[in-house]
Amino acid sequence: MVTLSELQALGQPVSAHRPWPRTLLTAPTWRHVADRLAAGELTLLGLWGEPATMHMAVLGAGERPAVAVFSIDCPDGRFPSIGQVHAPAIRLERAARDLFGLDPVGLSDARPWLDHGAWGIARPLASPPGEVGQARPYEFLPVEGDDLHEIPVGPVHAGIIEPGHFRFTADGETVVRLEARLGYTHKGQEALLRGADLDRAAKLAGRVSGDSTVAYALAFARAVEAALEIEVPARAVWLRALMAELERIANHFGDIGGVCNDAAFSIMLAHCGILRERVLRAAAGCFGHRLMMDRIVPGGVATDLDADGVALLRALLKELRLRFPPLVALYDNTASLQDRTASTGIVHPDLARRFGAGGHVGRASGRDFDARRNLGYPPYDTLSFEVPVLNEGDVNARVWIRIREIEQSLGLIEQILDRLPDGPVCVAVAERGAEEPREGIAIVEAFRGDVLAWLRIGADGRIARCHLRDASWFQWPLVEAAVEGNIVADFPLCNKSFNCSYSGHDL
Amino acid sequence: MRKTFLEGLLHRPLTEAPPVLDAADLAALATELDAVAQRRLGHSLSIREVDAGSCNGCELEVNALGNAFYDLERFGLRFVASPRHADVLLVTGPVTKNMREALRRTWVATPGPKWVVAAGDCAVDGGMFADSYACIGAVSEAIPVDLRIPGCPPSPTQLLKGLLRLLTPAR
User: Fold this and answer.
1) In the structure, what pLDDT confidence band is assigned to residue B17 with cuts at 50, 70 and 90?
2) Phi and psi at residue A295, in whole multiples of 5°?
3) In chain A, how many domains are there?
4) Out of A204, A254, A277, whose CB is closest to B128?
């Protein structure tokens, strides 16, 4: 089993990268890391480009794993593909090729991913960007066999959800293969972030995936603070965690209701919808915005919590603790509902581990990882909570993980309210511009899994490059695997049980 | 389950009184609807929601319209699964170039008479994404827009006010 420090010894350390080290590798050692990823000794956390460099973040093994960033210079626009030996990297490499024109040498999949041929430019983040070539129709992977038929779905779906295209190949009612095509919500986030001042960049980061706006703002702020070595006031650290837990339970309530509704059990949606609304109203009452957008900023938080807010949250906790358990019992005791969710849409634990699937997707399939605990960022290092893990990997397990996480989060919110320190909630960041470029990385646990933020702040104090990686990158491919062998009619149920982000993935 | 139903019978509904539109609301909605349109819209509307590249914040609040507090359907407003069943397209997002064609086709598939509501700051004017290589900006750059509901995201109350404006004769 290779350790990250052994790999780091093979390359050149890069200065001014915090809190975890970045190491410049040569092509052979880059390939060596790829092999270690493929062997399951390390987990891929992210893979992203710059005009003439590729970076990857990896997670070591163990209960308190280390994180490392490895980079490779590619002056000729080529780098050895990780995806050729480690499948989770494939879409990330296709995206880097679309955005930067960097060619993953050895990757057999030559199709674009985010670029649908509609931007009017090619390689928009390369310097200089390219001319648009001949637009070619997207080729789905071929499927052969007797009596198979194709069902194209999307990008505009029947429900009020985000756009994406799903291509089913079915044998009668049974799905033989699902292939997703994403990128419809690509907004050019990374180009907008480039050159943005920290205020604007924080707002952009908060709009990568609206349901995780708190988590993204937190990841971005922590990366900025790591780069500039800023100490955030204690009260702000605790308020951030408070917002993150409120966001988590609001989303989990929505998801539990949504999954049950997709199994035609709408009473759960009605009741979970009420609980979700109560959380959002409490958030608006405490922080002035239902989704708490733009409330976490580099240096701290933008809104303090007053005594009324604390009372509001205590009343919310009481209400949720009263109303939620009967709903859990209702879910648990309704056999017709369990009949739909149990043994449906199974993600095998091996696959969850290989893809480093975070959140309820990973933890319902035996992957015992939660950035709050395993990376132990404050204030979670001093809070008491459990990380629920199941091994079944089906829709039912993903629902139960959410139920258990809500229970844990209610406990966390109570601990935070009990122990919330006094003091200022923000330090000024603007005047602390960097003299030389500085780099920072942060990983935080959003409701659907770990979000990674990596950035470089230039000497002018603006964002030179910022990459934000949603948990969905490593979950979308598992949706395809989970649906195989299920009936077409169970796809909405399976998909909702994942609830991957389209916008967070498409950037 | 029986207990849950019984409790539902014994408690007063959570549904709140409809919001009242004041002059400021009407100005903010920047509607181009005329009295003729409103007569034709009548008192029942089928709405098809189209995410044209939003961050999904708007979708969260549009979904919230269906919860017990706002209960959209009591106003005769309901979301439908197909543009072919719709009177109104409710469009969110800064219209990514990758979604432009799908949005246009959805609009073409909606039978006339039809109206378009641009919901959220991105849909109104492109929001923070107006200058991106990957976005067109305002929904009105892609298809004709009749009503604009600003907000990032618009709250369910703001959305409700905007949608009720479709049903309320101009004063």
Assistant:
1) confident
2) -90, -25
3) 2
4) A204
